[in-house]
Amino acid sequence: MNAEGYFREKIVKEDIGEEILSFAAEIYPICRSITGNGVRETLRAIGAHVPLEIHEVPTGTAVFDWVIPQEWNIRGAYIKNERGEKIVDFSRSNLHVMSFSVPVRQHMSLTELKQHVYTLPDQPDLIPYRTSYYAENWAFCMPHRLLESLRDETYEVVIDSHLQDGHLTYGEYLHRGRTEEEFLLSAHVCHPSLANDNCSGVALLTQLAKHMEGMQTRYSYRFLFAPGTIGAITWLARNEQRSQRIKHGLVVSMVGDGGGPTYKKSRRGDARIDRAMAQTLRHSGLAPSILDFSPYGYDERQYCSPGFNLPVGLFQRSRFGTIPHYHTSADNLDFIAPPHLAVSYRLIAEAIEIIENDAIYRNTMPKCEPQLGRRGLYGMIGGDKDAAAANMAMLWILNLSDGMHSLLDIAERANLPFAVIQRTAQILLHKGLLVTSEIAVDEPGVSGDMRP
Ligand code: ZN
Questions:
Q1: 116-135 pLDDT tens trace
Q2: How far apart are CA 252 and CA 225, in angstroms?
Q3: 5-52: per-residue pLDDT in tens?
Q4: Which residues of 429-446 are buried (b: 16+ CB within 10 A; e: fewer)?
Q5: At the topology level of CATH, where does 3-68+167-356 sit?
Q6: The domain at 72-164 falls in which architecture?
Q7: Who has the most CB within 10 Å: 52, 141, 269, 295?
Q8: How many Å lie between the centroid of ligand 1 and the Cα of residue 29?
Q9: How many angstroms does the Cα of residue 95 sit away from the middle of ligand 1?
C-alpha cells in the first residue's frame, strides 16, 4: 500500500451493498450450528469467492479449558396434531428447532410438549433462536400465538437429528502483505437463519477479502470464519504462537441494520485499531457509540482474554442485544439493507486505510513556521471549507511532525479526518517540508502508542 489513500477508492465498489446482501441471502437459508454440515456448506460458499483453507478438528480435542463437542446434523423436524397437520415444520424455518437438540420421535400430551417449547410472550409472532450446546436436551421454538392456539390433544413430535463424533469446522484465508504482521478480521458462522447476526458480517468480510485480492498491503490480513466462542478458542489454541503476529483486529457482526455504528474497544483500550475506529466513526457524519471493553459480547471475549490480550475490537451497527429483532425470526433478510451494508463496509475500509497509512514524518524546517504563502500552499486545496481544513492540517502536521508523532496522533489532536491529514502530508512531502522519520510507526513505545 502506498500512502496515497487509494485503498478505500479501490476497495469500495458502487454496488458493494447489493453484492454483500446477495451473498448474505445465499447463505441465509443454511442451518448452521457450532458443528456440522451447515458450517461446511457456508464455508464452501465463501470458498467460491476466496481460496479458503478449511480445518476440521476432531470431537474430543482439548482446546484450553474446552473440548470440541460432537457434530450436530439435522434432516428435519415437525410437530403433528391428531388431524395429521404439521403445526410446526423445520423446513419452513430452521429456528423452529433448538440448535443441538437430541433426536426425538414420540407422542405426547400438550402439557409434556410445553416443557420443550420456547416462545417470546412479549413478541408473540416471532420465533426465538435458542441453543443448548453443552447440555443434552431438545426443544422447539415457535410464535407464542401459535402455542396459545394449540388444543389439549396428543402430538407427534419428531426431531430427525444426529449428535455424533465428528469435527468442528472453520475456515481462514490469509491475504499476504509486505510484512508478516497481521490484521485479524473475524466473523462467527454458527447462527442459522439470522440475517444481521451474522450472515451480514460473514458476507461483508467475504466481499472485503475478495476485493483485496491482488492489492499490495503493508499488513497481512487474516480472515477467520469460525463458530462463535468454541471456534475462536479452537483457533487460538492451535495458533498460540502465530497469534502474536496480530497487531490489529476486528470482530465483525450485525453490520446490515441502520443503527449505530457501534465500536467496542479492545481490552487494551488504546490500541491503534481502537484509535483508528474511533477516528473513522467520529468523522463519519453518523451518530456512533464508542464503548469501552467489557467481557461480554462476541469473539473479542476470547481474543481479549488476559492470556492473549490481542488488540481486537468489535464493530457492529446496532449494539447486540439492544434491538427487538435480536435472536428472533425478525432478524431476516428484510432487516438488512444494501445502504447500511455499504456504510459498514466503507467504515471498515477507512479504518484499514488509517492502519495502513499511518506514518511518522519530520518537519525539515522546524525553526519557526516555514513561509507557506511563498510556496503557494495557502488555500491550494479544494473549495473554501476544504481549504480551511487543509490549512489547519498543514499547521498541525508541521508543528507535530517532530519525528515522534504519527499522522493518526496529529489527526486526533487536530480533530480532523485522517484522510485530510494524510492528503495534506503528501503535499508537504512533495514540497520538501516533510521527510519520512527514521522511526517507524509500529515500533513499540514510540509512534502510534505515544499520546501527544
Ligand atoms: Zn448471536
A1: 999 999 999 999 999 999 99
A2: 10
A3: 567 777 778 899 999 999 999 999 999 999 999 999 999 999 999 999
A4: beeebbeebebebbeeeb
A5: Aminopeptidase (3.40.630)
A6: 3-Layer(bba) Sandwich (3.50)
A7: 141
A8: 16
A9: 13
